[in-house]
Structure formats: C-alpha cells, structure tokens
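Incident log, support desk, overnight shift.

02:14 A customer reports that sequence design results differ from what the structure should imply. Their input is reproduced verbatim below. On-call engineer (initials T.W.) acknowledged and began investigating.
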C-alpha cells in the first residue's frame, strides 16, 4: 500500500462498463480474475487485474492498473491474456468474494473506502452472478427499501 491515506494499492481486480467500475476483492485463488473474465465476456472493460491502484477525486474513488500490469489478466490454467484496458474509472461498487450472500433480496450495503461510501455486494454462488453485476453496471439497482 502507498503512504498517502487517500491512495492505496489492493490485491484485487477491477472491470467497468459505461464509466462505472466494480472492484472485485477476495482471498488469493478466490475467483477475482475468473469473475472479471466472465464480466468481460458480457461486455465489461478490463481496468486492472491482480493489483488495483485506488485514489480519491471529486467524483469518488478512482481505480487503475499499475503500468506494468495494464492490459493483462490471468486466466488460471490457461495463462496471462491481454485485453484493451480502460485507463481509469470511478468505482460504483465493490464485490467481496470472501462473503457469501445468504439473503434472497439483501438490503443495500455500503463500505467506506478512502473516506467515500461505496456500495458493496457479497459473493453469489450462481451462474447468473456475472450477468447480474453487468445489469447493475448498466442500470443500477432498485433500492430494496423503496419497493412497494
């Protein structure tokens, strides 16, 4: 991690669609790159894999890859693949692969990251998880508390 309290580097992945980024974090071997690759197959852009640099700007928490890793993503048991990277993106969500979602319709959760509130999702063990995250990036999510 860097010394500036408003900048840090995490062992994570990050993908984006339409200027909205998702930080994917979890334990080593926990599926961060695999989820990023699934989302890329649905149209997401690669921002970073393995290491994500984060900093705060007026529009929120920003993410990018360290220059040495830009455009590279690991496909376990296949190798290092290349992709046209998105240089940087504002985060709109965090996916925590170490936490399993158990609620069918969970309440919105937020985490403070670099003094900014960012929505957080827990891992869903279902084949639709990457597609659901893509739909979130495309249109956001209905606030469950606002349902009729």
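02:41 Re-run completed on a clean worker. Output:
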């Amino acid at each position: 991690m860097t010394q500036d309290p408003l900048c840090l580097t995490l062992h994570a992945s990050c993908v984006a669609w339409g200027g909205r980024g998702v930080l994917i974090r979890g334990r080593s071997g926990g599926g961060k790159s695999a989820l990023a690759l699934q989302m890329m197959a649905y149209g997401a852009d690669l921002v970073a894999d393995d290491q994500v640099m984060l900093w705060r700007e007026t529009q929120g928490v920003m993410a990018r890859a360290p220059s040495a890793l830009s455009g590279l993503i690991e496909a376990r048991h296949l190798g290092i693949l290349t992709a046209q990277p998105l240089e940087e993106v504002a985060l709109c969500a965090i996916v925590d692969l170490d936490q399993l979602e158990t609620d069918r319709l969970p309440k919105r959760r937020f985490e403070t990251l670099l003094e900014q509130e960012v929505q957080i999702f827990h891992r869903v063990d279902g084949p639709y998880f990457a597609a659901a995250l893509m739909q979130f990036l495309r249109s956001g999510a209905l606030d469950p508390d606002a349902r009729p």
